[in-house]
Write a structure and sequence with these properties.
Length: about 250
């Protein structure tokens, strides 16, 4: 099972959109995927059209008093795609502060996932937090979506500093995804060139264009694959191909 964090310490870069679309695309090639929503905004549920909050969420999985099994906490949202939502985000943080170690916390909490899933994708909050620290220790790969604006690009140093502070190898950052690219603007073009000067081709993916249809799909609780099959989807498929090559 390959474990992936979708992380950036800056909000508004499309993390949840990337996480949901990556999960949906992987399950479409007959891979079993668990999407774990550990973003305090809980956008994955919205983007996948989950109408009712599940009875059991991530907190029930780690509740030291009455822990639930993973199978009791996940919700099947599509064929081959399960979602593990979160609730009581502050209580999850408190449990982590109580833990003796955070570097293996999720290994224990999600120990049963490898029996069922090919990929486990975690949507993270845009912050330094004890929850994110536990996630970054746990995963095999980090994918960083970034908006093509100066502030987002400058923020990369903070991500690398965060990993260094945790003594996590920065080589865990496997892919950087330029998101919401608008080829009509000089700013997008210039900032894409800036990213190309920073990152090697094996890390930087092709940009994903800014499309109104993607926003509409998310509001409708669908992925773009479901909402508008006429939209050019090559960029998402290219991302999926890059992810599969990671192993």
């Amino acid at each position: 099972m390959h474990k992936i964090a979708i992380y950036n310490n800056k909000g508004g870069v499309g993390k949840s959109t990337i996480a949901v679309h990556l999960a949906d695309a992987l399950r479409r090639i007959d891979l079993k995927v668990l999407l774990v929503d550990l973003d305090s905004q809980n956008d994955c549920s919205l983007f996948l059209g989950l109408k009712e909050e599940p009875e059991n969420t991530f907190f029930n999985l780690i509740d030291y008093r009455y822990p639930a099994n993973l199978s009791e906490c996940v919700t099947e949202v599509r064929e081959n795609l399960d979602l593990l939502t979160n609730r009581n985000y502050e209580l999850i943080e408190k449990d982590l502060h109580r833990a003796t170690r955070i570097d293996n916390f999720l290994d224990k909490a999600l120990k049963d996932a490898a029996k069922t899933y090919d990929y486990l994708i975690i949507d993270c909050s845009p912050s330094r937090s004890i929850i994110n620290s536990a996630i970054l220790f746990y995963v095999d790969s980090i994918i960083v979506p970034t908006q093509l604006e100066v502030a987002s690009i400058r923020g990369f140093s903070d991500i690398y500093n965060y990993l260094n502070d945790l003594e996590i190898d920065t080589a865990k950052i496997k892919l950087v995804v330029p998101n919401m690219f608008d080829a009509r603007t000089k700013e997008s073009q210039d900032n894409l060139k800036e990213l190309e000067s920073i990152f090697e081709e094996d890390i930087l993916t092709e940009p994903i264009n800014r499309r109104t249809k993607i926003t509409e799909a998310s509001k409708a609780g669908e992925t773009i694959f479901e909402y508008d099959t006429d939209t050019q989807l090559e960029q998402f498929y290219n991302l999926v191909e890059r992810v599969v090559k990671l192993g």
